[in-house]
Amino acid sequence: MQRVGRIIRDSYYRYYLEQNAAREKDRPFCRHDFQHMLDVARISYILLVEGNLIPGFIGRNRLDSHQAAKEVVYAAGLLHDIARWQQYDTGEDHAAAGARLAGPILERAGFLPREIEVITRAIAAHRRGEPWGGMLGRLLCRADDLARPCALCAAREKCYKADRMETLRETLIY
Question: Which residues form the HD/PDEase domain (predicted)?
Answer without folding.
Answer: 29-158
